[in-house]
Amino acid sequence: MSTPIRLAIGSIIIGALVLGIKTLAWWMTGSVALLSDALESTVNVATAVAALIAIRVAARPADDTHPYGHHKAEFFSAVLEGVMIIVAALLILNEAWQGLRSPVALELPLVGLLVNAGATVINAVWSRILITKGRSAQSPALVADGRHLMADVVTSLGVAVGVLLAVATGWWILDPLLAGAVALNILWAGSRVVRESLSGLMDEAAPEATVRCVREVISQEAGGAVEAHDLRTRHAGQAIFIDFHLVVPAEMTVFDAHEICDRVEEALKEAVPGARITIHVEPEHKQKHSGIVVLD
What we know:
Layout: H1 3-29, H2 32-58, H3 73-101, H4 109-136, H5 140-169, H6 174-201, H7 208-221, E1 227-236, E2 239-247, H8 254-271, E3 275-282, E4 292-293
Parallel strand pairs: 2-3
Antiparallel strand pairs: 1-2, 1-4
Helix pairs in contact: 1-2, 1-4, 2-3, 2-5, 2-6, 3-5, 3-6, 4-5, 5-6, 7-8
């Protein structure tokens, strides 16, 4: 079982545990703000399931109907997660509005906050694990899930401060007001997840640092060639697609040109994990005198 799949299964288990704890905190207090926190956790569970499905699909090898693989499945999961976050924010806004119309005193607020704090700590630790491991595994679904959980942590901290203020002042209207603020924060986080995931679906280029690395590898490893030009990259989940034109001397044999390509591909795959490389070899008269200069 791969690391991304293990993490996705872990997210489902952690999400269900946190949801149960936060629901208990809301049941103990009757707080609209704590209810909003629990509602967001229902989204965590649903999106963790979606992430697991997407990661399993993305791991499938290329086939006749998907010759370039299934890597983009993770971006669909991340978009779905963003949309569900936005839906959760709208549900919380509705609860906040109802609370503003009829604010009520809270029961056992401090005990409920302590229970909720336990869920917050679990989310904070798991969020950091997901973001770190997701980046190293080049998994957009896991990174999106981790960022969502981090937004949940910030939300929970804000909820705790607001409920404490409501208890200290007796201004129970602060509870639904805080729930509304939580919803707006979640709405912003959801829109960010959707925006970043759509960039992947639109074949956005690989990060600038990766492109610089690719150019350096080609320049250093393509000895015997003249130049490389028309370099293009795009990322799709754990895969990074790289294609370019490699100009070789007119008198070079096909065998020698192929040897250069093999050497460059091997170096690129070592420098850029998940690289999928296509090289178009051209004779010397196709030289553009621009692009990547091959070092002797």
